[in-house]
Backbone:
């Protein structure tokens, strides 16, 4: 398996283009199942999860291919309603196939997604919502078999938690349902708005995306679309933090600053200098940063997907800080690996207590999940000596050409065939 080798200590400087959002592209790709027409999706990042989804769509019967950063889906013939374990186990977002196939075929059999290193990540909110829309659900031999013989009907659905995936799944199911669906306590992430924009382009009748209550009037048929995916706010945040950790100066282009407000506010509070224009952010810090606590929240709060990267930053800031994770129950897998690099961290329940250290020292470390891997890369960029990062296939799921982007900013970073 490939590894990343970093010799730390180089200041990052220069400009990089932020890629399209993985977490926006994925539900939009599944939305193509809602129409037999051609679809074109631009600014799609070249990532393992995108390839998995394209393989998935082709398996289901939607002829899909990717050329550079554009995905083209052609007219589909008969759709298959079974999503097998060997596809679903690779990517939890595969559960997003449920909404479109229930909407189109009135049935779907999806393998249970299985566990994940950052938490159990159940899908009870998704399934309860489908039941409210008239679906029957049976768990059998590791599969979730969902049927809606008379098609889905609109319903008032209140989420116990503002789940991103469940909001997306119910949006994908309700656009072709009979009658009106209201999602109460919907997720408000930018990726939800991007998906809603696509569905509206397809002819769906949606109002309230980005707020707590989303209303959908079901329609009979949806048409193809052309869409450019929004910038990846989590990738952008990762590079902003890298710039500060290495005491460099980096400009990000093709970024959407308003999607990064919670992170930018905390970075400014810590002492970062930021110049923000319509779609660029220039970041550096002349002075030592201050230790600042964060608590992850649903959007527009501080994103859980930037928690690990923030922890890496605070490891090298003089003073004490606390990171609290409220969204996932086990998202501190990066702590023990950061400790191997010399970080002074202590886990207490949902909080990690950080004591900044003068210096980190390079060592072999292992990636457990996508964003934990990002935190290890950031720490490696600053650690004295050599850091060898294994299991980087996790990184390939969510960061487009990560080592090339960092190399272009001056990092001493190489991918070696493992
Ligand atoms: C999406 O995951 C993102 N993935 C995650 O990004 C992100 O961390 C998460 O939203 C929160 O922002 C994609 O968009 C592909 P949730 P999702 O449903 O939809 C619990 C990354 O690094 N929950 O909002 O799975 C769940 O266990 C990935 O890019 C239930 O209990 O997130 C978790 O604790 C990691 N029952 C919390 O809600 C359910 O039915 C948040 O989950 C659904 C969720």
Residues:
């Amino acid at each position: 398996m490939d590894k990343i080798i970093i010799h730390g200590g180089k200041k990052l400087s220069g400009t990089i283009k932020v890629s399209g959002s993985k977490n926006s592209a994925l539900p939009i790709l599944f939305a193509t199942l809602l129409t037999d027409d051609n679809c074109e999706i631009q600014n799609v990042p070249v990532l393992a999860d995108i390839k998995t989804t394209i393989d998935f769509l082709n398996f289901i019967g939607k002829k899909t291919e990717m050329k550079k950063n554009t995905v083209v889906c052609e007219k589909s013939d008969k759709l298959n309603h079974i999503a097998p374990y060997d596809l679903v186990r690779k990517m939890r977002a595969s559960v997003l196939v449920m909404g479109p196939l229930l909407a189109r075929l009135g049935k779907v059999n999806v393998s249970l997604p299985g566990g994940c290193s950052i938490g159990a990540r159940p899908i009870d909110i998704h399934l309860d919502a489908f039941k409210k829309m008239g679906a029957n659900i049976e768990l059998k031999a590791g599969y979730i078999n969902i049927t809606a013989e008379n098609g889905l009907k609109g319903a008032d659905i209140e989420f116990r938690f503002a789940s991103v995936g469940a909001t997306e799944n119910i949006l994908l199911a309700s656009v072709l349902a009979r009658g009106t669906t209201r999602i109460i306590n919907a997720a408000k992430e930018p990726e939800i708005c991007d998906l809603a924009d696509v569905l509206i382009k397809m002819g769906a009748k949606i109002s309230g995306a980005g707020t707590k209550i989303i209303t959908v009037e079901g329609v009979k048929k949806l048409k193809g679309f052309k869409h450019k995916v929004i910038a990846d706010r989590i990738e952008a945040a990762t590079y902003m933090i890298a710039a500060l950790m290495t005491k460099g100066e980096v400009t990000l282009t093709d970024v959407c600053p308003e999607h990064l407000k919670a992170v930018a506010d905390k970075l400014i509070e810590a002492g970062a200098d930021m110049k923000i224009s319509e779609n660029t952010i220039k970041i550096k810090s002349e002075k030592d940063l201050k230790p600042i606590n964060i608590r992850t929240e649903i959007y527009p709060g501080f994103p859980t997907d930037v928690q690990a990267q923030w922890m890496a930053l605070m490891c090298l800031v003089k003073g004490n800080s606390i990171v609290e994770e409220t969204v996932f129950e086990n998202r501190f897998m990066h702590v023990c690996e950061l400790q191997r690099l010399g970080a002074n961290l202590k886990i207490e329940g949902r909080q990690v207590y950080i004591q900044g250290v003068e210096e980190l020292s390079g060592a072999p470390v292992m990636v457990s999940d996508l964003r934990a891997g990002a935190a290890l890369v950031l720490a490696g960029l600053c650690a004295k000596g050599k850091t060898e990062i294994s299991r980087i296939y996790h990184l390939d799921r969510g960061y487009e050409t990560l080592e090339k982007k960092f190399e272009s900013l001056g990092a001493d970073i190489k991918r070696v065939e493992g």
User: Anything to note?
Assistant: The CA atoms of residues 361 and 384 lie 5 Å apart. The mean pLDDT is 96.
